[in-house]
Design goal:
Elements: E1 16-18, E2 24-28, E3 31-34, E4 41-46, E5 50-51, E6 58-59, E7 63-64, E8 71-74, E9 77-80, E10 84-96, E11 102-110, E12 113-114, E13 120-124, E14 130-141, E15 146-153, E16 158-160, E17 176-184
Antiparallel strand pairs: 1-2, 2-3, 4-7, 4-17, 5-16, 6-15, 8-9, 9-15, 10-14, 10-16, 10-17, 11-12, 11-13, 11-15
Length: about 180
């Protein structure tokens, strides 16, 4: 594959070159676009219950799956090694040990700042009820940015619940998961 230089033009669709940024590019609609390589994906989970102090924001600390690439984790911070657009899917299994209503809130923080217009809320009204909540969002990040998944409840009887195998030997259920896939530069 030839290297792309300043004289190369994307006037014909389908021209593939190697960009000096370290990625192959293809010409489409009069511009060169990066071909996304298998970098920047990961699966993170918490396999235990997560408890809370009422009305206190809590950063969730995940465990990384062994097949991650382009992402690193330290405590609650997941760091992006490369800039790009990432599709991020969050899920949590909420539970309550109270017959009163318990409100749950989840939101992302990027580089220590809450992401505007991103909170997801749900409530449980039954003792020992459990419910899975989820959301998928698109994030544009720079290399070195870090993401944290935040959670809070208004009553300490609310928790994120991991569930052990019990029905027909099904696999255990983590209390929360986070999947990240880089979809473009």
């Amino acid at each position: 594959m030839a290297f792309k230089d300043a004289d190369d033009k994307a006037t014909n669709d389908g021209i593939i070159l190697w960009d000096t940024d370290g990625y192959p590019v293809v010409s489409k609609n009069n511009e060169f676009r990066q071909i996304v390589l298998a970098d920047g994906y990961g699966f993170f989970y918490i396999s235990s219950n997560v408890t809370f102090t009422a009305n206190t924001a809590t950063a969730l600390s995940y465990t990384a799956d062994s097949n991650n690439t382009g992402l690193s984790i330290s405590g609650s911070q997941i760091t992006f090694n490369e800039a790009g657009k990432y599709l991020i899917s969050f899920s949590a299994q909420i539970s309550s040990t109270s017959s009163s209503t318990v409100n749950f809130a989840f939101w992302p923080r990027l580089n220590g700042s809450n992401v505007a217009n991103s909170t997801m809320r749900n409530a449980l009204h039954q003792n020992n009820a459990a419910l899975v909540v989820s959301r998928t969002s698109l994030f544009t990040v720079s290399a070195g940015d870090y993401l944290e998944a935040m959670a809070a409840v208004d009553d300490a009887s609310g928790k994120l619940e991991a569930i052990a195998s019990s029905i027909a030997s099904e696999p255990a259920a983590p209390s929360t998961t986070l999947s990240i896939v880089r979809i473009s530069q």
